[in-house]
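Our consortium's second objective concerns turning raw sequence data into structural hypotheses that experimental partners can test. To show how far this objective has progressed, the report includes one record in full. It was chosen at random from the queue rather than selected for favorable results. The single chain below, 142 residues long, was entered without modification.
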Amino acid sequence: MKLKLRRNQQSGITGKVSFKLFFIVDLDSDEAAALKKYKFGKQIVYETPKGAAALEGLKTASSVGGIGRGIAATIAAKAFDHILSVNDMIDGKEIICKDIDEMIAAEEQIKDACQTLSRILYMCQHFEGEEIIDIQPFAAEA
């Protein structure tokens, strides 16, 4: 698995700078096969607070019979790149951040999501086998 990142900045009419983070994940053929077999594509890997609120809105609306409102909130959040799935990572996505701190946080979450996905795909490829792991002895502090 390879994560490709591209960072850009853009000044608006008012001179305010926005930051853009484009990312895409390339999978090798074994990883792609495991992803397809186990259907992890729709799993959420990154969400901003607005995206999380929209997703919570879907759950709440569904529980009280207002599925349409919840779906609309979720679609709106996805349209603004507030909710990202594994499929979004594979297809490539751009996140626009209001400041550099938000961009750094988004990048860290994306890297963490890639590490987790890599581990999941590794485990999926190694069922029906045996693995031996050396555990270092506990060293008590003196």
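The partners drew two points from this record. Residues 73-81 have pLDDT under 50 and may be disordered. The longest helix spans residues 100-125. Both points have been shared with the crystallography group to help prioritize constructs.
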